[in-house]
Amino acid sequence: AVDGVPTVASTAPAPLPTPTEEVPVSEQPAPQPTAALSAGDLVRGASSSAVYYYGSDGKRHIFPNETVYFSWYEDFSDVKIVSDNQLAGFALGNLVRIRPGTKLVKIVSDPKVYAVEPGGVLRWVTSEDQATALFGADWAKRVVDVDVSLFTAYSYGSDLAANELPLGAVFRYK
After folding, report:
1. Three-state SS string across 17-65, please?
2. 54-80 per-position pLDDT tens digit
3. What is the residue-wise DSSP string for the chain?
4. In this predicted structure, what is the pLDDT of residue 34?
5. The model scores a pTM over 0.90
6. Average pLDDT, the chain
7. Distance from C-alpha of 98 to C-alpha of 122, rounded to nearest angstrom
8. What is the pLDDT of residue 170?
């Protein structure tokens, strides 16, 4: 101890090989992927399967599950892989929610079904008749259960009025 401050004995690091020495592959550090990211990119760390949306705020926003991811994208082909260190350098942002207009959501413990509007606003679809009128006879196929712990990422708007389309609704015309 020097002046009451503990000291730690250190050993000198091993000398680096000279440029003429060959370093066995097993001793070479694994290359760490890096990528220049732009707002809107999809990204994951080299050792993780979790996918994030890289926002214009410079934060990484996680897709909590595949249901949410596939409400926005068809596949994983545009996901960029970055080093775990690079990923850790981005602050965590908000949870990515179901894409408005693509799915109807509910929680297991509550039979109410909601349309999702921009900003994660939930609008209660008040009856099966209303759901059929707005989303067709197979509306129930669009319903996904959202884990109750993720429902806090949404906010509640007013109930949908009869024949009122939710904002952001995505429809196919035949």
Report:
1. CCCCCCCCHHHCCCCCCCCCCCCCCEEEECCCCCCEEECCCCCEEECCC
2. 999 999 999 999 999 999 999 999 999
3. -BTTB------PPPPPPPTTSPPPGGGSPPPPP-----TT-EEEETT----EEE-TTS-EEE--SHHHHHHH-S-STTEEEE-HHHHHTSPB-PPPPPPTTT-EEEETTEEEEEEEEGGGEEEEE--HHHHHHHH-TTGGGGEEE--GGGGGGSEE-PPPPTTPPPTT------
4. 52
5. no
6. 83
7. 11
8. 67
